[in-house]
Model the fold of this input.
Amino acid sequence: MSTASRLPKSIQQLAAKLPTEVDSTIRKLAALSLIGQTVLVVTGGAVRLTSSGLGCPTWPRCTSSSLVNTPEMGIHGFIEFGNRMLTFALAAVAVLMLVYLWNLRKERRDLFLLALGLLASIPAQAIIGGITVLSNLNPWVVGLHFLVSMALVVFSTLLVNRAYGRTGGFMIRPLAAIPGTMSPVMTAVALFSAVAVCLGVVVTGAGPHAGDANAPRNDLDWDLFSHIHAVPAYLITAGALFAVYFVLRKGLTGPFRTATFLLLGVTVLQAIIGFTQYYNGIPALLVGAHMLGAALLMSAATNAADVARFSPKL
Done:
């Protein structure tokens, strides 16, 4: 007896209505997942930059007697609780993605495992978020919370590429050939992007935006680590410029050309924001923009490396 025949009849009927090939709904859910993970980075930044990190002073409840924020908690409670609720929205998207992929779980194992990984990470993020609150916003725990979000942006980007047939074993159309050097260069750029994000967490932990007036700092030299943080950023810029140079020189077209120009654009924008905030006293609004830029950079670098990996070589 097959696994499907052992399921309750109602579930069998539901499964019969689910897609048997990647359709527009699956693609939209993948895109929504990437957008949602990016928005989560922004709302998480808003929590810290508005000093709302302890807007809900306990976990898993918002207060010792309430699951939700109360009017007495003011705007800080609303911001912190809203960020918590976004996690549930992302969980719903991940569950829907798995449901819609049910009939494709073997044929499109790549999509199913990525969606499963995104869903499994959500309770892990919730636990880390709880430890963040219970540790009074320990900067290293806050940093871990942010890094997991960055990893989820990477996985969501890969999910989008696979769902839209841009890369992987089920590409809708073949990619244009690129120079053989491009794949290792783009992989290096993606790795440097991850290093830059990790060092950015250290810088943030030493900076003034702790999330609460009484939250601890990591007591490291903020200015020194800001300069160290800039080193991989320079390498990312060099890699992006190198890729764009070859794209223009060889007259390359297609997704890799788009990916390299997008990567360079995000890199330049992120550099401008970084330098501006450094020389203007680290204003909260620019810090929030830099956090959004970090998510966009990780997505752009992942996309460029992914496209380069599956492109035939000249």
About this structure: The mean pLDDT is 90. The CA atoms of residues 7 and 231 lie 56 Å apart.
